[in-house]
Amino acid sequence: MSFDPLELPASQPCDVPVLDWTHRLTQLGPSFFTPLQPTPVAAPRWAARNDALRTELGWPAELFDDDHLQAFAGNALMVGSQPLATVYSGHQFGQWAGQLGDGRAIWLGEAQSAQGPQEIQLKGAGRTPYSRGGDGRAVLRSSIREYLCSEAMHGLCIPTTRALSLVASPEPVRRETMESAAVVARVAPSFLRFGHFEHFSAQGDTDSLRTLADHAITHHLPECQERAALWQGNVYAALLDEVQERTARLLVQWQAVGFCHGVMNTDNMSLLGLTIDYGPFQFMDGFDPGHICNHSDHQGRYAYGRQPNVAYWNLYCLAQALAPLIDDHDMTLQVLEGYKSLFPRFLGDAMRTKLGLTGTLAPESEREADWTLVEDLMQILASERTDYTLFWRRFSEAVAAGKTCMDRHASLAMTDPEFPVTASEAWQSMDDLFIDRARWQAWLARYAKRTDPAQWPDMGIQMLRTNPKFVLRNHLAEMAIRQAQAGDFSEIETLYNLLKSPFDEHPGFEAYAALPPDWAAQLEISCSS
Ligand code: AMP
Ligand code: MG
After folding, report:
1. Which of 68, 305, 364, 378 has the fewest Cβ atoms surrounding its Cβ within 10 A?
2. Strand pairing report for 95-99 and 138-139
3. Distance, CA 5 to ligand 2 centroid (Å)?
4. Considering only CA atoms, which residue is closest to atom 6 of ligand 1?
5. Across the strands, what pairs with 375?
6. Regarding beta strands 178-188 and 12-14, do their DSSP bridges make them parallel or antiparallel, or are they unpaired?
7. Which range has the worst mean pLDDT, 109-113, 397-401, 458-462, 525-529?
8. Which of 248, 118, 120, 272 is nearest to 196 (CA)?
9. How high is the mean pLDDT of the chain?
10. Which ligand lies nearest the alpha carbon of 101?
11. For residue 14, pLDDT beyond 80
12. How far is the CA of 349 from the centre of ligand 2 (A)?
């Protein structure tokens, strides 16, 4: 199907200038993108507006008035916006996929903000020259998931693209069934992906590759200049090094919170180490290292436990793409080695923090002993399929309740298992999570030996700030989706408010932190979005 942007209906400008645009990406030149207009959608309606993000960015309230509804639907252009779609390539499910590009994400521009320049994209705003067979649209279902998960990740302090607004339209969109359309406005300092670099490298266009790398370093990763000192002044090796470290940190955070991305193709990997492209993602319910959240991923390539290695594989692709710039094979491999040592170190620190065992300066022997404690715990959780989020939260509450409380609970349970253990509810609810309680108790005894009982209340408080009460479980998103499809967007707001501060108690909303209902296991999330 041929594509001519000029055939698209021209959008009407939104004539109140509210943002101060910069557009540094456009300096890259025409081989990096195609200027084009979004395609209007019928009868747009606000489904969500992220006032907290707007305020954080210092953007005025007018941005969310009804004139701007048309701009966020892709039906009008804000004054000063310069819409375009960028080209990238990538490896999908381990295979070179060739040219991809923004098939349905239209870049509106880059605007100044209180957090530095931010790029804005409309996802689902129509076809582009990179849409291939796709319709350029996103359905309401997947857009709600992206909107909520972006903000949930931010609430969890995990680097991510942000979601500014969600606009729904009754326009029909064909997926497995007929669904309705939506447009998410997402925001990030840069939407550059590994795939942008792979694209120019695969074409043998080293000049464009260098232009792109220089752009990324100058505007988004200036710390590479200093880091080059570690790599004999090679700033492109420093770029790869910076990205591998950010990726290691990101993957540690995903693993620690039980997040499965689902489609870790190289075109879905952010150069800035942000979580990007929310599709069939899932926060695990029962802990299972082999958990596959994407029902289209038949081989389990992107299973939870494989994510860290896939990230390394993806970094290897980025390294190959940057090879003509780094121009030193051994150095490139040495940079990649960084991931192999940083990832386990950062993961060890993260898991120790989850257990209330802080101190990144701990001696190596202590770290190793703690890692054994972590691994043994993970084995128990895996063999019992213990609910991952509930385990960590209840354990944090129990540790906060104190060791005296645990001992009392244990002795009561020993003498009379039916005894109403009101003073040790927190410990009782821990026991309730396990079938093989003796195995859990044996692990707990090791934990108790490793720690100072007097410190438990303080450790527990710290753990409650590390182990969230609320995550965007599939069934929670599903309930918001079903209500929204029936025209009621209020559940999106409710979830948003819980997820943006997931470590808080939110009294009255306990049901949102409970075990998933039985029907949740039947939910099938595929790539289709
Ligand atoms: P994803 O797997 O969602 O990261 O998408 C892979 C590629 O397909 C990217 O280039 C997307 O822009 C493109 N794409 C996905 N869905 C659509 C769609 N409905 N219309 C056009 N392009 C799409
Ligand atoms: Mg993608």
Report:
1. 364
2. unpaired
3. 21
4. 100
5. none
6. unpaired
7. 525-529
8. 272
9. 93
10. 1
11. no
12. 30
Nearest to 467 by CA among 504, 511, 421, 515: 504
pLDDT band at 4 (very low <50, low <70, confident <90, very high): very low
Q: Please give the helix or strand (H or E) that residue 147 lies within, else none.
A: helix 140-155
Could you tell me the distance, in angstroms and rounded to a whole number, from the CA of residue 2 to the centre of ligand 2? 22
Q: Per mean pLDDT, which range of 252-266, 293-307, 340-354, 510-524 is the poorest?
A: 510-524
Contact 185, 120 (CB under 8 A): yes
Which residue owns the Cα nearest ligand 1 atom 7? 100
Q: Distance between CA atoms of 58 and 42, rounded to whole angstroms?
A: 30
pLDDT at residue 319, as a whole number: 98
Where does residue 134 fall: left (phi above 0), alpha (psi -120 to 50 degrees), or beta otherwise? beta
Q: Per the structure block, which two tokens stand in for 390?
A: 């509930």
Given this model, what pLDDT does residue 360 score?
A: 61
Ligand 1 pocket (Cβ < 6 Å) reads: 100-104, 130-131, 134-137, 263, 267-268, 277, 279, 527
Active-site position among 267, 288, 370, 387:
267
pLDDT band with cut points at 50, 70 and 90 for residue 403:
confident
What CA–CA distance (Å, rounded) separates 91 from 526? 19
Question: Which pLDDT band, with edges at 50, 70 and 90, does 417 fall under?
Answer: low
Question: What integer pLDDT is reported at residue 12 of this predicted model?
Answer: 58
Which tokens hold the place of 148? 């909520």
Percentage with pLDDT > 90 across the chain:
86
Choosing from 121, 130, 142 the residue with most ligand 1 atoms within 8 A of its CB, the one to mutate for a pocket test is 130
CB-based contact 301:290 (threshold 8 Å): no
Hey, which of 132, 179, 194 would you mutate to test ligand 1's pocket, going by the most ligand atoms within 8 Å of its Cβ?
132
Coil vs helix vs strand at 17 = coil
Nearest to 341, CA basis, from 221, 248, 436, 224: 248
Please say if the pLDDT value at position 421 is more than 60.
no
* Per-residue exposure over 421-452, b if at least 16 CB sit within 10 Å of its own CB, e if not: beebebbbebbebbeeeeebeebbeebeeebe
The pLDDT of residue 115: 97
| Confidence label for 16 from pLDDT (cuts 50, 70 and 90) | low
Report the residue among 92, 131, 173, 176 best suited for mutation to probe ligand 1: largest number of ligand atoms under 8 A from its CB.
131
Question: Catalytic site residue 416?
Answer: no
% of the chain surpassing 70 pLDDT: 94
- Quote the ligand 2 centre to 267 CA distance (angstroms): 6
What spacing in Å lies between the alpha carbon of 9 and ligand 2's midpoint?
A: 26
**Other Cβ atoms closer than 10 A to 510:** 10
Q: At what angle do helices 307-326 and 206-219 cross, to 10 degrees?
A: 110
User: Residue 7: pLDDT above 50?
Assistant: no
| Domain layout of the chain by residue ranges | 5-190, 195-354, 364-464
Q: How confident is the model at residue 416, as a pLDDT? A: 57
